[in-house]
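Replying to the earlier thread about multi-chain prediction with a worked example.

Input:
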Amino acid sequence: MKRLQQYTATARICAKGVFDGGLLSVAGEYLVRFLQLILLVQIWRSFGESSVLPDGMSLPVLLTYTLMASVFRQQLDIITPATSALWEGSITGRYLRPCPVLGGLAAETIGRWWIPVFLFYSVPVLLISPLLGISPLPASAWNLVFFLISLALSASLGFALDFIYASMAIRMKNGCWAAQMVREALTQLFTGALIPFAMLPGWAGQLLSWLPTGSIASAPLSIYVGGAGSSPLYLIGLQLFWNAVLWPISLWIFHKSEERMISYGG
Amino acid sequence: MEDRSINNQTENTAGEIRYGKEKGWFFTLMRLYGTYAKLDLLWFLRDTKYCLLYMVTDVICALAAMAGVLLLSVQFGGFGGMSRNEILFMLSYGIFVDGIFNLFFTGENMGNISRVIGRGQLDHWMIQPVPVWIQMATCGFCPFSGSSKLVCGIIMTVYSLYGLPVAVTPWWVFSFLAGTAASTAVILAFVYIVSCLAFVSPAAAEEIAPTAHSPFDMLKSYPLGGLSAFWKTCFCTVAPVGLAAWLPSLSLLEKAPGMFGPLPVLTIVMAAVYMAAAGMLFKKGMNYYGKYGCPRYSGFGHR
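Result:
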């Protein structure tokens, strides 16, 4: 219970600090995200008009998928402050706090990104989505239930992968920014957050859906829209499998890497 | 975008600059390009492992950015009014533009000018006996560490041209180079226009340049031909991601022929407009900076 209070307090402090730098520091990011949504929606519409969409992927389904990918972007693309703190030298401060480092980083992520983005980006976008001609509703009530379970597993898997990336960054020392850049570049494609796997060539979509990254965005979003292909139980089972495999690896690699941690600050 | 400024320390001395001044600004410009090239080479030689790491990273990021759109075009045999090969050319054009940007504006946060403004580092330029514009034009030059994307762009462009019925004449090559230079100018000017907010709000807008640059990273890979005229106009004027690859590629592929054949005239005109606006706003910002300074110079110290 005490631990939960510590995490809640950390998340609350981080959430309050989001606008410390002023509205500009976050509004630009929200605007870019919205522009990306608009562009993708327009492009999918042009696909729909030319009737080239693959079987089982209608235009409304595709638009809802893209909308929800944008709305839940933070939960489907977990980036904790681990790597940036290592780069900035502020990682040492995390070791002085009276709570576990990994738990603290997760609480910071929830406070700094999940809460403000949900309140100031996700909710407004969900509210205006009917004006854009996109339905934000799930395929059915069951799909919503399965989606929430899948989203929780996706976030859990995202944290595990992030700590593995952070471990790589620790080992790359001054090159940790390179690890971050590669990770950001690959994430959008490999998770299915930007382009649904059903829109890719069959072999590529199938291959990406089996990877752990495929369980991060593609699985919950496919469940939400009730897309053709795999059943919710199969996708959730796959997510459970990757969680069971990657969490022990993540914890082991991170704790081994901590012994090599060097941070110059910069 | 990473902050590589720590690896590039200026080594201008008063003696060198006085010598440059006597010979004119062009000589100073070339001399500083030479100096920054030397500094970049020294980083490469001193810290080869990390330098190569960043170079490889740039290539991976470039290829990853184009992979999604390329796979879409493979699946549907092209889209957005472009064939598969035409999309490949457009993506290569985009990487070439990124390559030019990296080559000239990676170092010293020149591509992320809001950081320089917000941190109060403009003062460092003002005390140098060289015009500010010459320093701005030269100090981002990284011909070694910043060249990997450009090399990748050249290879991809040549490869993509093999599958296209394009007559590669000297005029076409000139048009291509003019188009890529104009696209780079649009991106740079857009980033600088947005970054001018850092003059009036240094803390809030210090990191706004990467945010201003990110639409180009994320959206320029998409062919916009399927969009309505309204959205096409938006993406070629207010949010000019279409000028970074799509519109000039159409001209070069002669799908939007103009008076000058493949020359992307509209992109060049828009680049001139954007550069003029950026120059005007930056000058206004400098005047504001001269009057009020930067609050980063406070009791808390500065970077």
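Residues 16-292 of chain B form one domain.

Feel free to reuse this layout for your own posts.
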